[in-house]
Amino acid sequence: MELPVNLLPDEASPEWMNKADNAWQLTAATLVGLQSIPGLVIIYGSMVKKKWAVNSAFMAFYAFAAVLVCWVGWGYRMSFGDRLTPFLGRPATTLDEGFLLSQAFLGLFSNATMVFFQGVFAAITVILIAGALLGRMNFRAWMVFVPLWLTCSYTIIAYSIWCPDGWLGKLGMIDYSGGYVIHLSSGVAGFTAAYWVGPRADNDRERLPPNNIILMLAGAGLLWMGWTGFNGGDPYVASTDASLAVLNTHVCAATSLLTWLILDIFLYGKPSVIGAVQGMITGLVCITPAAGVVQGWAAIIMGTISGSVPWFTMMVLHNKVGLLRRVDDPMAVFHTHAVAGTLGGILTGFFAVPKLCRLFYMVPDWEKYIGLAYGLQSGRTSAGFRQMGIQLCGILFVICLNVVVTSLICLLIGLVIPLRLSDDGLKLGDSVIHGEEAFAFWGDGERLDEDCPRHNNSVYDMELPSMA
């Protein structure tokens, strides 16, 4: 078959593009997208009271769409584009064909692939923030919050840490796949926004029974398996390091889940399904900044720590610290993402293997990317402490930036749109906010229309044609 003269094979598949890497990167991006749509949509919709199911799920659904539009409009170039400042790129669109078909700044694939891959990371970050705001935030305020926070917070942190020209990236900070950029950032921003929005209604906060635990487990399963793309896609190549990152991710998550489960049984006498899901999440978050730069035994240690420290902060410390008790965080985003992300960043600075770091960052620099444990072992103690100092500096930067920027965004929105729902909205939930309800069960005050053939109790009640 002859190709049209204007369609040349080398233009569709240029020499610099590696088809395997491109296919893996698009697959990894899709797996990350599935963590949000439908993963977190299902988790949010099933872990709340049934009157909040639609609103909670739709906050995530809306955020995914809004972030992607803002991302191609200006967010990607602000995060990974030409340098404007040491912590921000120059705003520009990514809609030009010439740009999208050219080679990405990292990896043997096109910018179109990179834009999508990084876009789903940005989307899940904002969706995680929503977990701290369920059950009381005005949806219109949320619609404004999403693009503002993406523009004013996420882009700065992503550029500073992940862009080759970013100031923390140049220092040698290790954040393999978003322990800082995504999890610490969303945990702190969610907690800060929850403070300004205020708590749920008292009757909602006193008891929050999930409306469907089995469905919650399905969403959690999508989140867990989707993490294969989350951490496996960040080397930007289908490599041995990507394989190591995937294995470490699942080992750490499993260890963390089991640790949390054992603590629940030992101290409370019952294996909590919700607790197990929280343990799974803390393990996934903790390993994220370290996934491909630590050994397997370190992943198990990190899983043990991520299954116990956040358990302690959530189950014990939370009720003893006034600020934690006062701020209403329905999905425990502070503990599962801010605390676990902080642990991951610190443990990465301790366990990072120099050889694995060189495989990931593709640099021969022996004075960077040296975990403290290996610095002490090899006699490069100062380099190990330097790495730990950089990791702690990154934690401080992300926390301070998110507290300030998120507070300013909430205060600004509050001048125009109420951050909280009306009293009727807080009382009735989905039916007032969206005019829709998640569950349509007979017996909730509705009567069966016996004249409607669709409402017959059984197909056997219908008059069937004669077979004669």
UniProtKB/TrEMBL annotation:
Annotated PROSITE patterns: AMMONIUM_TRANSP
Domain (Ammonium transporter AmtB-like) ranges: 23-438
Localization (cell): Cell membrane
Keyword Transmembrane among record annotations: yes
Bilayer topology term: Multi-pass membrane protein
Taxonomy, superkingdom: Eukaryota
TM regions (residue ranges): 23-45, 52-74, 115-134, 141-161, 181-198, 210-227, 281-312, 332-353, 392-417
Annotated keywords: Ammonia transport, Membrane, Transmembrane, Transmembrane helix, Transport
Name of the protein described by the UniProt record: Ammonium transporter
Species the sequence originates in: Punica granatum
Organismal lineage: Eukaryota, Viridiplantae, Streptophyta, Embryophyta, Tracheophyta
